[in-house]
Amino acid sequence: MPFSQTPVKIAIFDLDSTLITTANGNLHALSPTDWKWWHPSVPNLLRSLVNCNQELVIVSNQGCFTTADGAEAAESLLFKEKMDAICHELDIKITIYAACSNDGYRKPRMGVWDVMAEDFRFDKGVKVEAYLVGDAAGRKSDHSDSDVHFADNLGIEFSTPEEFFLREKSKEEVGHKFDPKWHLPTNRSGTLNYKPSKNSLNTNNTTQFSTIPNLLLQRRV
Ligand SMILES: [Mg+2]
Description:
Number of domains: 1
Bound molecules: magnesium ion
Radius of gyration: 17 Å
Helix content: 10-25%
Pfam families: PNK3P
Protein name: D,D-heptose 1,7-bisphosphate phosphatase
Low-confidence stretches: 194-208
GO molecular function: ATP-dependent polydeoxyribonucleotide 5'-hydroxyl-kinase activity; double-stranded DNA binding; polynucleotide 3'-phosphatase activity
Largest sheet: 7 strands, mixed
GO biological process, one term: DNA repair
């Protein structure tokens, strides 16, 4: 199938410790209002990306959003309310994917990319250019390397929040707690390694909240 001439440009951001941090300084938010921007420059920079016709996407690993009996957990309600407040303040088109189980949607695995492919139609021949910004970069002080590995798995450009928002070179080297290159041929040249899955999930473009198994989708249009 031929690619369309105009590529869709997708700016992918991690959420916690990339776009926002807790207002109280704790690791996890205690209420829907317990958040602040990671840096004051973040909201205007995000708006400028949308003004440059980039699709803004947040991909976040979260905890379990369901209780043992299958009901919606308080963490899910807190997250959705917090994201509503963030989206309201940004007031731009934005799509949020929150992986809430240890399955194929969780970074650095690429299940979310299958959903994005349908949402942004690059499974239908639309060319895509994407990059990712995240704090889980495998640096010595990082809790994880899931963001840099997600970018590696997709073969897209990666930046830390310091590099992207502050134009500062990271004080610590971006690295790996585990290196996928030990096992997979990957590159960061911008050539996507992604191949569409035959079993990717359907989403509804008009729905504000849509829960598919273990993946919370939230969209502001
Ligand atoms: Mg993070």
